[in-house]
């Protein structure tokens, strides 16, 4: 992997920025920005609506994008619904999926981002169901298939869980959890927001019924995302939105839905963003997930080596071998947001702090009422940047911790 050449594609890096907040959102490379600009300049017509030349070109580009996105996760094109982000996709499932009569339970984990917790919490409240939360038994925050299986029984209707924790980088055993859930005839919903940037996704191998991801987590534009709906589940989900493009016939007393995915894409979708998302997936695929994984491991191991022995600093989560390139920590006596501000103001290092939209994890699993500091690297980060991060943290500890 030619890291020097890759970094030239990211304008922000040329300004001396040390960007280590990739779990929140990744930087966007010049080819994707150029593609987005091109779509607005040359394909600014409404696809799937008008029949003039410009609209047909836009429709062709949108179809190409759907084909690219489907291939990227090994799905069929009709199983790909374009969304604005992971949150929208998960809410579409929670609000549209018919789980039958009141009662039963829904299982989630304590590692969930609010986007994969609150929709199910609200659904349980509205539909009179029990919400069961799986807490890790291990001190490093790892959740095993046995932990999840203990919460599943014959009354379980759905299991919703993250592929990778946005707080700890913990990787959950998706295939094993899905197998246990399906043995109980239970739906499975996967939040892939944090896994899609770092590993190859294959919905056929994973076996999940629903999967949601965001484009801005994998070098794409904001306002872009994918909701995968397994074809056998099409009839189980009522579209949350209805309107133009989602129907084939309307009478005064009834209407008929279009076939998926149009059924779930009412109105003019963010089609330019969807096209640019496809370009982002192509860009990352050219780098290669083997290269990304290797680089991830190199940087996270270096971070642990340089920071792990600092007195007054506590690292949370599993070892580098069992997580993605994410480091969660606190410095004794300092508020996480204070640490993040110092890193930014003194060394131009940008990280995330606080509860990370995952308060059950930070407060209940980690016992940190003010949250944590999170460092998250990606394929364009360097060993030198990690070294500077470690040096700055050491300086903070030496000068501010009693």
H-E order: HHEHHEHEHEHEHEHEEEEHHEEHEEHEH
The quaternary state of the protein chains shown equals single chain
Indicate the CATH class of the largest domain: Alpha Beta
Number of H/I helices:
14
The CATH topology label of the largest domain is Aspartate Aminotransferase, domain 2
CATH superfamily of the largest domain: Type I PLP-dependent aspartate aminotransferase-like (Major domain)
CATH architecture of the largest domain, by name, is: 3-Layer(aba) Sandwich
Distance between the termini: 43 Å
- Runs in which pLDDT lies below 50 for 5 or more consecutive residues are none
Computed Rg: 22 Å
* β-sheet strand percentage: 15-25%
How many strands?
15
Name the descriptors.
alpha/beta; Aspartate Aminotransferase, domain 1; Aspartate Aminotransferase, domain 2; 2 domains; 7-stranded mixed sheet; 4-stranded antiparallel sheet; 14 helices; 39% helix; globular
What topology emerges from the helices and strands here?
Layout lengths: L2 H5 L3 H4 L3 E2 L10 H13 L10 H21 L6 E4 L2 H11 L8 E5 L8 H10 L2 E5 L10 H5 L6 E7 L11 H10 L3 E5 L11 H4 L3 E5 L10 E5 L17 E4 L4 E3 L13 H17 L1 H19 L5 E4 L9 E6 L4 H12 L1 E2 L1 E3 L4 H7 L6 E5 L6 H18 L2
Description:
With 402 residues, the chain is of the alpha/beta class. The chain has 2 domains: 3-20 and 288-400, Aspartate Aminotransferase, domain 1 (Alpha-Beta Complex); 32-285, Type I PLP-dependent aspartate aminotransferase-like (Major domain) (Aspartate Aminotransferase, domain 2). It is 39% helix and 16% strand. The chain has helices spanning 3-7, 11-14, 30-42, 53-73, 86-96, 118-127, 145-149, 174-183, 203-206, 271-287, 289-307, 336-347, 359-365, 383-400; strands spanning 18-19, 80-83, 105-109, 130-134, 156-162, 187-191, 210-214, 225-229, 247-250, 255-257, 313-316, 326-331, 349-350, 352-354, 372-376. Helix 8 (174-183) links the parallel strand 5 (156-162) and strand 6. Helix 4 (53-73) packs across helix 10 (271-287).
